[in-house]
Amino acid sequence: METLSFKITSDHFLLCLFLSLLWGITETTAASTGEATSSSEPPTTSSTSLTKTMTPPRDAEGFKSLAQTETSITLRWKNVDATFNYTLVINGEEIIVTATAGPEVKHTIRDLTNGTKYNFQLFTVFEYARSTGVNLTAVTAPPNAEGFKSLAQTETSITLGWKNVDATFNYTLVIKGEEMNVPASADTEVKHTIPDLPSGTKYNFQLFTVFEYARSTGVNLTAVTAPLNTENVKSVEQTETSITLRWKNVDATFNYTLVINGEEIIVTATAGPEVKHTIPDLTNGTKYNFQLFTVFEYARSTGVNLTAVTAPPNAEGFKSLAQTETSITLGWKNVDATFNYTLVIKGEEMNVPASADTEVKHTIPDLPSGTKYNFQLFTVFEYARSTGVNLTAVTAPLNTENVKSVEQTETSITLRWKNVDATFNYTLVINGEEIIVTATAGPEVKHTIPDLTNGTKYNFQLFTVFEYARSTGVNLTAVTAPLNTENVKSVEQTETSITLRWKNVDATFNYTLVINGEEIIVTATAGPEVKHTIPDLTNGTKYNFQLFTVFEYARSTGVNLTAVTAPLNTENVKSVEQTETSITLRWKNVDATFNYTLVINGEEIIVTATAGPEVKHTIPDLTNGTKYNFQLFTVFEYARSTGVNLTAVTAPLSAGGFRTVTQNETSITLQWDKVDDIINYTLGLNGKEIIVTATADIEVKHTTSQLTSGTKYKFQLFTVFEYAKSTVVNHTAVTAPRNTEEFKSVGQNETSITLQWNNLKKIFNYTLVFNEKEINVPASEELLLTQTISELTSGIKYELRLFTVFENVNSTGVNYTAVTAPRNTEELESVGQNETSITLQWRKVNAILNYTLVINTSMINVSASEGLDKVKYVISNLTSGTKYNVSLLTVFVNVKSTGVNYFADTVPSTVDSVHVTERSVTNITLMWHRMKNDWDYRLEMNGENRTILQSRTMDEVSHSIPNLEPGTEYPFRVITLFSGLSSIAYEGFTVTGIDCANGNWHVTTSSIQGTVRGLFSSAEASNTSTQINGSTGNSSVSFSGLYPGATYNVTLQYEKNVTTFEQCRHTVTIVPPYLRSSCEYSAAGYSMSIIWNKPEGIWTSVEVNVTGKTLKKLENGKHSLDISGFLPARKYEVSIASVSGDVRSDEPFVFSCLTDPRGVIAGSFFAVLIFAVLVCLVVFIFLKRPDIIRKKQFIGGSRQSKEKSKAIPVAKFPDHFYQLGVDENRGFSQEYESLIPVGTDQTRNAATLPENKPRNRFNNVLPYDWCRVKLDTPNPNGNSDYINASYMPGYNSSKDYIACQGPLPTTVNHFWRMIWEQRVKGIVMVTNCTEGGRTKCERYWPADSKPVPQGELIVTLRSERQEPDWTLREFRVKNRNNSEQRTVKHFHFTAWPDHGVPEGTEVLIQFRGLVRRHIERDGAGAPTVVHCSAGVGRTGTIMALDVLLQQLEKERAVGINGFVHKMRLSRPHMVQTESQYVFLHHCIMDCLQPHENTEENIYENTEENIYENEDMIYANATALREFPQQKNINYTT
């Protein structure tokens, strides 16, 4: 809202006087009326017909206000008499109160105004007579305050605010039962702060409006104090893409908000003493600034700051480059020139400092030979390390020692040598082939070489190998062994001898026979076989023989043979056990290794050897009660003893049919079949034997009594015949169990009943019988057993019987009656809802009338009406826009059904208000308060319906509508959405802004006229001293009476429905005033003074043009300019114009100036005299030295012009350079001047368009249309594609570079758009942002690592390394539309002095080398952007140097003039000054002569004053003659 300004006039004064008089008259009238009303004298009535006067009744007593609301007051008084009426006077109106019989009278006056004081007068009335009257003052209750809300909070206070109901009302604020009085205030808003509160606490407030003694009904509000900041915030872990923070948990119920790079992260509450949170998706090796806020409800703490970094990436290409016995050289790719490295070996760390090289090499000396080292390489950025790269490398091993042949066979040789190290392998070379021998742990290594020829000599070479390294090698000679003999066998044995025989291998070979470690030499024989007997052996013994063929020192591998002597007979053979079908024999074991052969009825049975002192063997498959004869032989290998004889018998059969025939709780009766005629039996029970003698019956029966109920008993039955018992017959029998206890129903549903009883024993089963069905309940270890009977019918009574079951034996049984629950209702549905209620309906279950409704843990009993199929019920007092879970239970005889669940929703509320938080030309952002987190919204605007789904954690909903028409009114509707339900729409309107800059503006020295598309209703032009309202209508606006040369801020506004919208702001400079001028000559005609007047208006400078050359004079109070460098007796045309900022006066004032002619006559005389002397001198020299005339003449301009495009070979360049530099650089000057008009006739239409002029830093450095860089734009007819940049030729193509001006504040976004669209990978900057106090270029990159948005791009500074003469940076550029990221290198040359060229060539040549390496490595395929301030002088110099050095390297020739000519065809003024042109030649000369330093002061002529100096002074007439050949240049680069 803007403050209204006006002037007080006499009319205003008279109006105020009139209102004051009117106010006084009104009060006087009101006072008179009040006096008349409150008079204590009753009205008198006189009549001549009355004969007597009636006595008036007395006044009522106890007249007081009993109660009041906002619109009524209830009065009470004692009744004077049951027959009296009363008259109540209020504000001059009378109310008749009729008589009542009670002791007191009550009367309520309604339709009153809230918060108002009323004067009452009560008269008792008897017939026509009134009492004197009783007065009473009472008030109505005031209204509640509106807008009651929490405005602010700290850790110890809460500031509340509300709309002031009335300036005279007080307020009472209730918190925790305590009341605070807030006095009346004249402000429209009331603010009150409650101090000394605990932090992070929720408070419930109640606000009452107080008028005198009356309170309003009260307004409730919940607010919280801000929580405390957390403590001990620190970074506890980082990776390349994440940082883990940890801090002390303030409270288990508090959340936290973590802010990083302007984005907020919600960290939910946890119960622990500390909170840990990991931020993912970060950039490696980057420093981040965090801000952590504790959040309680909607309140934040003040916040804690922390800086942390991500770990840098691991180095790549980590490998061992070389090794010796004492050192290892490692190498890896350099991650970044600013990163250090830590190399860990054996727990020790080595620091490797940062390097600018692309590859890093590091040698670790003084290492032991043949040792494996585990290296770990970490990239280090500040305090953070990368995860590390592991590498194993080794030093070279030593040769082994003591290499010898330790064993050989017919086809192999086994070598042995001293093991150099347990981890070393070896390479064995034999006959040119290599064999790998793997590492072993012992002190020596043995290796066998197989597949050799027997009896052959071999030469070996052995190398020690550690990982990939070999030793020098050791040589050895060895032979193979002869063949083994064949057919070795034992041909005869006795108890004390063995005879062997084998095939003779060769008549010349001996044999060695080894038995029990002793060797027997058997000499060579001539026969085909050899036979040998070994005497004096032990009986029953196995002997191992080994037979070797022997040739020279080598034995064959040997032939093994086992032979035995005969064994002895066994002793103590007897029968120890028998069954019906088997006999078990036992005898003394002769030897643990001996077998036995048992012969029965002519059949042999093999009994294998055992280790014990005795042998037991059972002969199966025999006939019961039969005698058998046995013969037993001891067997050792293939030899038997003489044998031992034995007789034994089998046992009788077992009884059959052993079973239980009856049982009760204390006895069991058993029965079995008699075995043949056997009458004796033994019955075993619990370790005791019972002798049972059979009778003559076929079956035997026996009863065992005094047993325990429900117990299992195991019986054993034996048939007894002579001394032998039959095999046992086992039988298990049980006594009957007793009945269970506590049998009852513990639960039921519609189709099942759950029963419970005491478990008598854990091993008992149970049988449940109902409806002629049986259910078996298995045994359980539980003390109480539960069984559910399912598939029942709802609401039915069932008769149940339960039996205890033990081993298929039932108890007598227990009876019980139970019922099932009713079924659930059906067709439960919501048939209606509003913001506070839901109507449910369901189908009745059979004839059941009782139901229970459960909602939010509250139970509601519902009784249905008879005769209706469906039940309907309304649930009220609900919260709007809320989902409720409702359960419906059918109730039948105190049994409830399982319940039916149903979800129903209430309708959401309409939003309170919608605010326009942002308006632009094509975009509008609306915001409103989110009442609940699970509510969504639909926005209807511009013919579109948009459903807005935003973060549920945000209190405010914000939505932007793009692509709108400028200056257009848009109505909108906001509808709250919840679970498919819609609220009543909130309706409003807004308008888009106007782009004033694209309007058509016409400016004169006193007026502004403009045409702007879009809605606006008022206009204003203002500066620091004045404010002028403009005229508007039909999209046009005009201002008059403006001050010449002044700058005004033009504001357009649109007003509707008491709402004012600021549509746009635009800055316009008025044309400065017209100047008049004159001149005076001085200094004998070589100088002149230009003098001008001072008209009304503002100007910042004066432009003076003398014969085409422009000088600018800043306004400093003086009105003249002295210029030297003229010739006497000459006439010069002068023009003068005023300039205000960038605006020039409409037309210059043009006049002629004459210089002083008085010195011309004298000058002519002396000139003739000097000319005569010079002629004589020339004649004299010609006569004396005619050879001078014949020398080579100076290279003229015409010749230069013909050869300027040719490349100069390297061999001729020094001479060319010398020729250009003679006669005070005359050749350089001529060549450079020939370049001035090149390309200037080409069109620059796009650059001169009005909308593009603000995008140019200088008005005379404009790109040519044919080669300008165009930005991508969705509107092909628009002008938003313009940027002051040109494609430039290089050595390889016509678009190797882009030359552009340094970005302006308004073109930084355009600059980064060009970088992205042209896919630029490198930027070369050859200016500083500020030089000599003047801004050369806007800083377009971030000052720190915090990402900075540039339009649709986000630019992040990833690294920065400063060197003495330049700074290298790396940017990460991210597109916000598709999240694509690119890396851009920034080469910033900082050593180019203002108004000159670098002090030497070496630094710039080195800098160019850095750029060239980047282009060749990473920048191929995309242009490199080069800029200074204007983008022509230094820019052209560095580009030309790069191309010329490429040409020099590849062609061994350079064409400086030709390439500068080529550049100027693409962009004007490239290589802007002659000094820069000369500097290029010096760079080439220094490259050809790298060890020579030229001391010539050739650069002292820096960028000419015509480009840099504002107070232009021309030193001599030569400079003046050059004026017509120069352009109007007023910028620097």
UniProtKB/TrEMBL annotation:
The chain crosses the membrane at residues 1160-1183. Residues 56-144, 226-314, 396-484, 566-654, 736-824, 907-997 form the Fibronectin type-III domain. It holds the Pfam family fn3. Residues 32-56 have a biased composition (Low complexity). GO terms for molecular function: protein tyrosine phosphatase activity. GO terms for cellular component: membrane; receptor complex. It is an enzyme of class 3 (hydrolase). The keyword Disulfide bond does not apply. Residues 32-60 are annotated as: Disordered. Residues 1-30 form the signal peptide. Its EC number is 3.1.3.48. It catalyses: O-phospho-L-tyrosyl-[protein] + H2O = L-tyrosyl-[protein] + phosphate. It is a single-pass type I membrane protein. Residues 1405-1478 form the Tyrosine specific protein phosphatases domain. PANTHER family: CYTOKINE RECEPTOR (PTHR46957), PROTEIN TYROSINE PHOSPHATASE, RECEPTOR TYPE, H (PTHR46957:SF10). This is protein-tyrosine-phosphatase. It comes from Gymnodraco acuticeps.
